[in-house]
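fyi for ur records
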Amino acid sequence: MTVLQPPADRPRIQFVLFDLLTAVLDSWTLWNAVAGSAELGSQWRMAYLKLTYGCGRYVRYESLVAQAAASVGLDSGCASELERRWNELRAWPEAGAVLADLKQHYKLGVVTNCSVALGHLAATIPGVAFDVVVTSEEAGFYKPDPAPYLLALDRLGARPENTVFVAGSAYDLFGTAQVGLPTYWHNRIGLSAPDGAPAPFATRPTLDDLPADILRLM
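which gave:
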């Protein structure tokens, strides 16, 4: 990738932060397998996303996953099964190559609505080392509260104006707008944005265009 120089009046992007479980990893496939069908898995996953993104202050992540399972009629044991099979998570097909490309030019980080143990394990799956991994458990709040994004910026020594966030869920757009983070929405499965969600600078069905879109943003 050839890095273009930004205009003199704009700061160059130096950092890229990622949502993990939706933007980088295909967590839908594992949820579906544990639930027993794509329909139930999707319902469970959407219920989980609503719970975590609507929670605010951190409560035990695994408890929210179990609560989401029960809310769609699944046995609460599905949450334990999901945790047991957590290392079966896989990155989206292009994610490894895109991350490796970006790693040559930017510092990379993760901001994930997850527990410390599961978040740090999931962050190893793409095979590219992140410079920082921030979980909602560490931050004390779930996204889209500003706390997790701000903690990641602080640990990287970054500022919103020289950082890009890559969202997997449009709920992230509410939090990144509060912090001032330009956001790329990797909308892999064609979800609708919630009412009132701020606009991303780009919405794509894959991560393939991310490096070029960052350059255009600069």
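DSSP finds ten helices and eight strands in the chain. thats all i got for now
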